[in-house]
Amino acid sequence: MTTNSSPQLWLYDTTLRDGTQREGLSVSIEDKLRIARRLDQLGIPFIEGGWPGANPKDVQFFWQLQEDPLKQAEIVAFCSTRRPNSTAATEPMLQDILAAGTRWVTIFGKSWDLHVTTSLKTTLEENLAMIRDTIEYLRSQGRRIIYDAEHWFDGYKHNPDYALQTLEAAIASGAEWLVLCDTNGGTLPHEISQIVQDVVRATGELGTGELGTGDWGLGTSKDSSQSPIPNPQSPIPQIGIHTHNDSEMAVANAIAAVMAGAKMVQGTINGYGERCGNANLCSLIPNLQLKLGYSCITEDQLTQLTEASRFVSEVVNLAPDEHAPFVGLSAFAHKGGIHVSAVERNPLTYEHIQPEQVGNHRRIVISEQSGLSNVLAKARSFGIDLDHQKAEAKQILQRLKDLESEGFQFEAAEASFALLMHEALGGRQKFFEVKGFQVHCDLIEGKETSNALATVKLAVDGKNILEAAEGNGPVAALDAALRKALVNFYPQIATFDLTDYKVRILNGHTGTAAKTRVLVESGNGRQRWTTVGVSTNILEASYQAVVEGLEYGLLLHSQAEAAVKASS
Ligand SMILES: CC(=O)SCCNC(=O)CCNC(=O)[C@H](O)C(C)(C)COP(=O)(O)OP(=O)(O)OC[C@H]1O[C@@H](n2cnc3c(N)ncnc32)[C@H](O)[C@@H]1OP(=O)(O)O
Ligand SMILES: CC(=O)C(=O)O
Predict the structure, then answer these.
(1) Burial of residue 9 (number of CB atoms within 10 Å: 0-12, 13-18, 19+)
(2) Are 149 and 135 in contact (CB under 8 A)?
(3) Cβ atoms 264, 10 nearer than 8 A
(4) How far apart are CA 272 and CA 409, in angstroms?
């Protein structure tokens, strides 16, 4: 828990710049604006919006934010130092930076002599001049500067004197933050810790001039008098950290840097970024705030973290990592019976924080690894009162284990497990009775799509129904025939749809005699549920799952009607 006296850390999000350097991630201007506003809501004080001048999208993004600014965050424009042997005032990219109209600009420059001579193909002296000239020019135009020391750690390891000279150039020309970058992501935490301590000590000795005194009257965010950013009167810039995840150390390295004195942490939502990604803010923020007692965002904003993570993954169209620490669907999912039994008694036994602190929630998973505690917890979540003394509880557990050993999997098919439970307790509603089905498929040479015809036999309230329907495949035809047969009795079926269908071959070595598991996801516009079927016949497995999907939808509808009746 943070208090007024908790040390302040400044978060800097680069999802919209370094995050978009991830392979497979591409966003429109509208996507960038939606993400920026979500990060603003989350309370991130610095949001790097992109590199105006690098592409037209980023130019327009900053213009749009000038029209409709963010509420609290400083939007930051990113750019390199000027090119070798030019002047900052004539560098077109720096004019684009000025046109972006941000109060803060991040300039990245070279710290590693190898990069100066190999990538820039210039002299070490000219690189120092590029850093100085660029920062001085932007300062003269009223901008506040964050200096990203690219390849800082590699540069410092190879040539510490030169690396420190680059920082000295940034300090002398007026940078307010020096951000040490582990650009290649190859540094380990003990090295980060040592080097950051060296820099904190060295910059204390290097510090000169009067920095950060300006209210520049610029900016695309709120009134600068309300700015959350410190206006350091100190001549010594603050240190920041920017880490990459190539050694899977990005979060650990950022934390090591903070513990060694860094006051700004750069990262991205969900760790998106070039190659293996950047430090994941969704892990960093809770670690820094809940474990180390730093103040980053408010407790209330912290509870929005899970939602923000999922929002960003949705906008960038990448499937969320269900096993991501803190914000993943499985971050607080308990499967092993021993775990569930203990968590039910006290969540501290298997949870390092309360899921609600980051807006996540505890889940109990049902599987062959379950004990009675899983079954009882699941029953409770279905609104079923089940006592562990009841013989039925043990029977349900046994049935679950038997079915899982036959190939069923209930952790992803909770609707089928709910039906199994109702069955065992003698309360499974019989909406209809299935009597059989037939499917006929045509695969005609030269025809692009196959045609399938399904016939189903059902009974509802003792009345036999025979119905047929076509579909572009056998499962679609079966689903259509079942709905057609039932819709006159249960008109709500018209609102159900089959939203996903997954097949898994369970014992592939037996070839075409292999068992098949089918998972069917269904929905009614408000809820979604998943059912499972297993058979050596793929159509039979599909039929079981589709039938249970319809049955569970009808159960939900009847429960909702009963709840309305009970409340009126
Ligand atoms: C560590 C990081 O993540 S830094 C950010 C990296 N992000 C990106 O590169 C994404 C956006 N980049 C782009 O759109 C393009 O690369 C641009 C517009 C910046 C430049 O495009 P081009 O002018 O066609 O150059 P190109 O991409 O081929 O090469 C990069 C140039 O920048 C130079 N450069 C690299 N770092 C710096 C620096 N810190 N300061 C000045 N120049 C630099 C390189 O030496 C090279 O110059 P050259 O063309 O004279 O050889
Ligand atoms: C600046 C930056 O993104 C890096 O050095 O990794």
Answers:
(1) buried
(2) no
(3) yes
(4) 32
- % helix / strand / coil in the chain, to the nearest 5? 45, 20, 35
Can you give the residue ranges of every domain in the chain?
A: 10-297, 333-420, 433-567
**Any idea which architecture 433-567 has in CATH?**
2-Layer Sandwich (3.30)
Count of CA atoms in the C-beta half-sphere (13 A) of 537: 9
SS3 assignment, position 239: strand
Whole-angstrom distance, CA of residue 103 vs CA of residue 94: 14
Closest CA to 196 of 184, 180, 177: 180
| Token pair in block for residue 100 | 């972006």
DSSP H or E segment with residue 311? helix 305-315
Q: What pLDDT, in 10s, does the model give residues 323-346?
A: 999 999 999 999 999 999 999 999
Q: How far is the CA of 253 from the centre of ligand 2 (A)?
A: 14
CATH class of this structure's domain 10-297? alpha beta
Digit-coded pLDDT (tens) for 26-57: 999 999 999 999 999 999 999 999 999 899 99
CA of 80 to the centre of ligand 1 (A): 7
The pick from 78, 115, 177, 244 for probing ligand 2's pocket by mutation, whose C-beta has the most ligand atoms within 8 angstroms, reads: 244
**112, 156, 183: residue to mutate for ligand 2 pocket, most atoms within 8 A of CB:** 183
Complex ipTM, two decimals? 0.97
Q: Could you tell me the pLDDT band of residue 445, with boundaries at 50, 70 and 90?
A: confident
